[in-house]
């Protein structure tokens, strides 16, 4: 015997009763908020300038990842950690998120004096309306440029000055930021690759020793990496590798 379908009116009555219980009150209307975005006529030039500043702020925020990569210590740190993981041969351990997070927090630690100077010389006076936006940008760029100059090789700086076909500057203030940033980047890449080479050496020696022992024992089918991995981890733990590497990386920036 087939079951008869239930009528729809009990379901409707149940929904109606639920609405009445949730929204008590006779004849009460439920209002929903609305969001409106539009363009109107400005009453004075100050409103236009505020709008332009907001647009510039959102533009800077959208470029924040690129600024973090190009003008801070993040590049050297994350490349050195990547080389370390490859030298250990641990595949995805530590995970990429952990290495990037560690590099990010170390970047904040290293750049704290620079950020503090930017806050003191640019952000606070601008918020107090002591200087305008253009002067604030110029003052904020000074400590960041000083940090980049300290880490940039003269050879790399001369390369981009020649590529830009600009006259030789008399001092650092005459060097354009557009020239300084790529010079700083390739200097950081060279330094990071040099650190990676130094990190590879001790683990490469362990791989060669293990491979030679396995070959002399006739175990040619056994992957040397599988045997050398525990010894590399043991060496890294015994010498307190994270302490040495992080300390050396931070000190390489003169902190």
Order of helices and strands: HHHHHHHHHH
Helicity level, as a percent range? over 70%
Low-confidence stretches: 1-7
Distance between the termini: 85 Å
What's the alpha carbon Rg, rounded to whole Å? 30 Å
Question: If you had to describe this structure to a student in words, what would you say it looks like?
Answer:
The protein is mostly helical. 72% of the residues lie in helices and 0% in strands. It has ten helices and no strands. It has helices at 9-22, 45-62, 64-71, 74-88, 96-127, 133-151, 154-164, 177-216, 224-238, 241-251.
Entry keywords:
mainly alpha; 10 helices; 255 residues
Write the layout of secondary structure elements.
Blueprint: H1 9-22, H2 45-62, H3 64-71, H4 74-88, H5 96-127, H6 133-151, H7 154-164, H8 177-216, H9 224-238, H10 241-251
Helix pairs in contact: 4-5, 4-8, 5-6, 6-8, 7-8, 8-9
Summarize this, please?
This protein is an all-alpha fold and 255 residues long.
């Amino acid at each position: 015997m087939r079951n008869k379908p239930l009528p729809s009116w009990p379901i409707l009555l149940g929904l109606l009763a639920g609405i009445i219980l949730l929204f008590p009150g006779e004849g009460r209307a439920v209002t929903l908020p609305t969001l409106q975005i539009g363009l109107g006529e400005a009453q004075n030039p100050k409103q236009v300038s505020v709008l332009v500043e907001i647009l510039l702020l959102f533009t800077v925020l959208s470029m924040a990842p690129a600024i973090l990569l190009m003008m801070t210590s993040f590049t050297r740190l994350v490349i050195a950690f990547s080389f370390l993981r490859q030298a250990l041969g641990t595949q995805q351990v530590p995970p990429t998120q952990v290495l990037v997070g560690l590099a990010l927090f170390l970047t904040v630690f290293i750049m704290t004096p620079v950020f503090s100077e930017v806050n003191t010389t640019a952000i606070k006076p601008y918020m107090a309306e002591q200087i305008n936006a253009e002067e604030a940008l110029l003052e904020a760029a000074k400590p960041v440029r000083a940090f980049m100059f300290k880490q940039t090789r003269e050879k790399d700086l001369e390369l981009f000055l020649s590529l830009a076909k600009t006259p030789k500057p008399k001092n650092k203030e005459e060097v354009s930021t557009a020239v300084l940033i790529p010079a700083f980047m390739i200097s950081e890449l060279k330094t990071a690759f040099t650190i990676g080479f130094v990190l590879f050496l001790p683990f490469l020696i362990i791989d060669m020793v293990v491979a030679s022992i396995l070959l002399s024992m006739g175990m040619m089918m056994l992957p040397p990496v599988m045997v050398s991995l525990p010894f590399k981890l043991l060496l890294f733990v015994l010498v307190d590798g994270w302490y040495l590497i992080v300390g050396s990386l931070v000190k390489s920036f003169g902190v």
